[in-house]
Structures are given as structure tokens and as C-alpha cells.
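Late entry, written up from scratch paper. The run itself happened at the end of the previous shift, but nothing got recorded in the book at the time, so transcribing now.
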Amino acid sequence: MERRTILKLVAAGVLPGTGGLVQLGCGSGGYKPEFFSAAQLDLVDALSDLILPSDDHSPGARAARVARYIDVMVADGSSELQAGWKSGLEAVSEQARERFGREFLDCDAAQQDAIVAEMARNEDEPQTPAGRFFRRLKQMTIDGYYTSEIGIHQDLGYQGNTAVDEFPGCTHEAHA
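Output as recorded:
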């Protein structure tokens, strides 16, 4: 991670747990989860990638390392938030075992899609623990993705703050 990025985050008051900020910027290998177990982090990674998969326009949540972002944010969150994530991940695992007799990560793509679709079915007014967890997961996935380099620059095409010498205004004939 570049020094400027770290300074901006420090100035913004973003100081996640022990070393998490530095780990987020590290390459693909060597990440040590701060809160989740390795298996839970893999589950968060798979779920977030189902919410924001890669497409022709941009890479998805996995490429943006959203699971790492979620891990750092949950590690630095309240015990209530942490308990919610633990129970939510367990609800996903339980649903996979009940429906397909295996863990979520051992399910095929169609089975994983079915589980996520069921969790998202009543997203506006979730009635189940898995449904309530889905809302939290989706929001954190979006937050992590659109605060990442990939989400901001590749997907949104944000160029950053740039000085403009002049602003010519609207050039459409109807507005002239």
C-alpha cells in the first residue's frame, strides 16, 4: 500500500485492528485473518463474489479482496456485530447442510446460487436469520467493493480530484 493511501486513511480516522489496514493492501498471498477463521473467510469470499461477480465491465468482489475488508471491519467492530457475523455464517452453512447435505463451499454453483437467492428473497423484510445476515453481507460487500481500487477506478471510472482550467458548460443545442 502506498504511503499516501495510508496517510489518507489515518487522516480519515480509519484505524482497523492490529495490522489489518496494512494487510488489506498486501498482495494475494500471506493474508492472516484478524477475526474469521480461514474457512469462514473463504465462505465470506465466496458469498461476496456471488453478490458482486466479475463481468465484462470489471472484476468482482473476490478480485477486490472484499472478504479481507469485511474481516478487518468485523474485527474492529462491536462484539454484537461480530456475533452477528458468526451466527450469519453458521446460518448459511446450516442452510447448505439442510438443503444439499454438504457445506456451502462444497456445493456446486447452482446450489450456491439457490442458497443465496433464498437468503435474498425477502431482502426488504427478512424473516429468517440467513435473510437478515444477507442484508448485512450485501451492504458490507458493496462498501468493500466500492472503496477498493477496483471498485472506484475500474468499475466506476473515478479519475480523482483534478483541476479544471475552464468549465464551458452545457454544449447541447437545446441548452445553448
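The two ends are 46 Å apart (CA to CA).
(Scratch paper discarded after transcription.)
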